[in-house]
Automatic annotation (TrEMBL):
Superkingdom, taxonomy of origin: Bacteria
A Pfam family that the UniProt record links to this protein: Peripla_BP_3
Protein's organism: Microbacterium yannicii
PROSITE patterns in UniProt: HTH_LACI_2
Keyword DNA-binding: yes
Protein's name in the database: LacI family DNA-binding transcriptional regulator
Keywords of the record: DNA-binding, Transcription, Transcription regulation
Annotated ranges, domain HTH lacI-type: 5-59
Gene3D superfamilies xrefs: 3.40.50.2300, lambda repressor-like DNA-binding domains
Molecular function (Gene Ontology), one example: DNA binding
Length: 329
């Protein structure tokens, strides 16, 4: 049977003492970043995993962190991927826990986790009711509130600046007439983008064909564009997401409108097929993986009593494609 690698093996490969390996995995102060990375790289090469039970008995540290998400969370995988990678890089084991959608049941489940003291830290992307905890082994709970109870974006991902930049680019190309399909306005992100659209229309003296609320569906895009008058073109459509934009492209095609000559269109989310539409769709990509990484590093810094990491910038960027162009082109 193959022998399991030990901290002594890691120390030998990394060229450090065995106590240094222990200090890296327990988050002890005084370890340089270069040394920490060398130890973790050696551990990765050897397939070393610390004995969490022994560590917990010796140091009151479990080496475990939890990420909690509501059962109804929509596509949390990219954020979880970033969060778990950040935790593993710093020597922690991560458990992902699905919480009930009901706020009262959710609070009770969090209270159970806190009371059990099985995790050094608990990270939530939604608001949490956290019971007061005391004691040296009490877990650190960080609610970063990037989403509300219904997983509507409320934090970094509500930044509507890309709407402004896309509209400014369209104006540079010669567009003066615009239309916006907002998505449901119970979503803070939809409200922020609508407000950015209206502000830009007013600031630049543009003509608006409307800001129409609806669901995040291709059917909505088809219905809105299908209902426009023949005198609407040329115009630029700012769609709530790529599905709405795809429906709008289909409706414009069925009406015989050229794109981007009669209708330029932008989307949001940059879903997988957006680059392969005809025309390929200008859209906004959100770096949720980097947001998960940043949030987990905030939690780890809080657990260890260290300075929090620098807040990331550029979590949203525009992918420019064929769906925008000069009117009448």
């Amino acid at each position: 049977m193959e022998r399991r690698p030990t901290s002594r093996d890691v120390a030998a490969l990394a060229g450090v003492s065995q106590s240094t390996v222990s200090f890296v995995y327990t988050g002890r102060d005084g370890i340089s970043e270069a040394t920490r990375k060398r130890v973790l790289l050696a551990a990765s090469e050897l397939g070393y995993r610390p004995n969490l039970a022994a560590r917990a008995m010796r140091t009151r540290r479990t080496g475990r962190l939890a990420v909690v998400i509501p059962v109804s969370a929509l596509n949390p995988l990219s954020m979880l991927r970033g969060a778990t990678a950040a935790a593993q890089e710093t020597g922690y084991v991560v458990e992902v826990v699905s919480l009930p959608d009901d706020p009262i049941e959710r609070a009770a489940r969090v209270a159970e986790m806190v009371d059990a003291r099985q995790h050094e830290g608990i990270l939530s992307f939604t608001p949490l009711q956290v019971p007061e905890v005391t004691g040296e082994d009490a877990p650190t709970v960080l609610s970063v509130s990037e989403f509300d109870d219904e997983m509507h974006a409320t934090g970094h991902l509500t930044d509507a600046q890309p709407i402004v930049l896309m509209m400014q680019r369209l104006v540079e190309l010669g567009h003066r007439r615009f239309l916006h399909i907002t998505g449901p306005l119970e979503y803070p992100a939809a409200v922020a983008r609508r407000d950015a659209y209206l502000d830009t229309v007013e600031r630049l003296g543009l003509e608006s064909l409307g800001a129409i609320e609806g669901e995040w569906t291709g059917e909505l895009g088809m219905a809105v564009v299908g209902s426009l008058s023949e005198e609407a073109p040329p115009f630029a459509l700012i769609a709530a997401n790529d599905y709405v934009a795809a429906g709008a492209i289909r409706a414009a095609t069925l009406r015989g409108w050229s794109m981007p000559g009669d209708m330029s269109v932008t989307g949001w989310d940059d879903v997988g097929l957006s680059a392969f539409l005809v025309p390929s769709l200008t859209s906004v990509v959100q770096d949720r993986e980097r947001l998960g990484d940043y949030s987990m590093r905030r939690l780890i810094a809080a657990v260890r009593g260290e300075e929090p990491p620098e807040r990331p910038t550029g979590l949203q960027r525009i992918i420019w494609r064929e769906s925008i162009g000069a009117p009448g082109a």
